[in-house]
Amino acid sequence: MKRSLPRLYSALFAVIFTVIGSHSFAQNALTISSGETAGLAPETLSVLMDSDTGVQGFVLAITFDTSLLAVSNVEAGSATASANAELVVPETLGGGFTLGVVLDATAPFDGQEIPAGTGLEIAAFTMTPQAVVGTSTDAAIEFSDGVLNNPPLSNLIVQNGQSVDASTGLGLNNGLLTLLPPPPDSVRIESSEITAEEGGPARILMTNVAEVQGFVLAIAHDPEILELTDIVRGDQALAAELFIVEIYDGNGLLGGIAGGTVGCVMDYTSPFDGQAIPAGVDNHIASYNYNTVIELVEPAPPITTNLTFVNGVFGNPPLENVIVGAGISIDPGLEDEGPGNGGLVVNPSPPPPVNDTAFYIGQRDFPQTGTNGGSGFPGQEIEFCFFYSDPNDNLQGVQLAVCYDDLLLVDGTFSIEGSIADELGAEFVHYQIDNDDNDGDGRELVAGILMDALPPFENQQLPTTTEPLMIACVDAEVDGGAICGDSFSIDFCNGINGNGMVEINNLAVIDYQSIQNFTLVGADYEIIPVPAFLRGDCNTDTLVDLADAATVIATEFQGYNALCLDACDSNDDGIINLADSVYLLNFLFSFGNPTPAPGPFSAGEDPTEDSLDCALPAACN
Predict the structure, then answer these.
(1) pTM of the prediction?
(2) Domains by residue range for the chain, with CATH
(3) For residue range 335-365, what is the model confidence (pLDDT) as tens digits?
(4) Residue 490 buriedness (CB in 10 A; 0-12 / 13-18 / 19+)
């Protein structure tokens, strides 16, 4: 720009005017406007001109206290621009700035000029404070002749080819920029609402009177209510070149404080284009995203938890909440308490939709008896079945996830035979049995039944029903080491994997949707002693003798209530009659065959399937 000055002044002196003596123009004046600014906010000022005739050019030379102010954007004012000035040469120097303007500097020399008038803006420039003041401070902005540039320049205007300066009547009226203490730049946590189920953000807003080049945030929360999942850029920080996030879960920190920090620099890498957050009210600079760690479901009331700015807690070295303007760190006001500030309202989640689908585990006659469980003795084989009911929806398929203990399911016995799924032609049936107690997830059964899985895809579905309908059964054996008097359960358990890696939940497929919120009813069984008796011991005194023959006769003809009819069946033909008494007497007194097992000397369970049964406490672990 310095190389343009000779051209400027050649034009001024050679083209427009020649200084001729001392010429007075009493009505001509230059005035620097005054203004005020708070903090580090820039302020645009003007040079105004009063002239009694047209002006063909001018030179400005203005100084100021560079410890307080810096200048930028020196340019032609509105009156100069309107006159189509052909040569405008600004220059910023160590102690001020100059501006030289020639209205008509090039051919065809049409004689442009700024017409006479008052208060004409011929130049504009921006002053930016270089220090934050504690009290109101006036910074002078002055016309200075013979100080700036080489050769030193003086302030002048050109009229009718003649220069008019201070010595020839040009009034020079200096200006003031009043520096005010900054209003409290502030950062606040916007009051927000989230739902317990979905979580959500809390926005961080900044009010700043000057451009901000960066900021640091440190905000704490209650870890018993919230979990901070992420911190993201706000709308005004999207162009930031450095945005560093740290999340602290409270472990290892004094008092278990949890929270998160942000370090942001708007212009961090080359070519250093000067990105900054503009002055404004409630500039959105960041969002803290939270999930809840509590269960809160309607009709529970909402709860409010505070988010709080903290200094000297997070980071190493500990971080403070600051904003940076003009390279200076400023402690902003921190608003995180009181109405409208820092409160995060956690609204309860709506209750899960009520679904009238129900799954049950029970004995085969469950629809008639409602019997879910029962009893079983160690080593006994039992069967349990699965049922569903749904009065309103057809089921396209079901998925079962079952856990159990004190049982060994019999592989190959899971079947839909005899069920409604079988009757309607289910096309996909698959299951896995996991009887391994040592694989870390216990004993499990997972199964899937899909009604329509093969062409021609005729949309088979399980029907609506108010009464439970059976869909499958499976055989199991009670553990041989089960403890008498204990109980075991067969339950629906979500999130199990059987022998695989995929977690399986109980669900019904309705209208191609996975429905999981429904009633699940498992089954409980009591462990009873192994049915054990002595065949022939009809009076159950642990001896086989003449008294038992009498008890058989009393049972048959006199209405005696024997405790174990299987023991009274001496010949093991499944019927209690006179033959049993004769068989017993023949054994005792005529050296006949002993009674069939179990007995007559060692108790045990009946090896013969018949309608007679009993369980005496003779073989209980």
Answers:
(1) 0.41
(2) 2-180 (2.60.40.680), 186-347 (2.60.40.680), 358-527 (2.60.40.680), 531-621 (1.10.1330.10)
(3) 875 444 568 999 999 887 667 899 999 999 9
(4) buried
